[in-house]
Amino acid sequence: MTIEATTLPDPGVTCANCEACCCRLEVLLITDTGVPDNFIEIDKWGGRTMARLDDGWCSALDRNTMNCMIYEKRPKICRELEMGEYECISARAS
Length: 94
Description:
Layout: E1 40-42, E2 48-50, E3 61-62, E4 67-68, H1 76-80, H2 86-93
């Protein structure tokens, strides 16, 4: 079994150069993680999603620091996304 280079984390993506591109992705809230209600929206199908600002950025992103304001209570998908992996690189390319 071989591992393709595209599946390995990109060592060039670090906390120092993170552009928080993943904070522009739609985040469905499947489980209760303790996300404060003011960061949650209900979509047209009744599903819970992370609220987004008019420009598409997650409402929990501090735009001055580009850090998550609810990091300890962030949704599961945000916890599972690893910096430098395929999904991260894909979001940065968008």
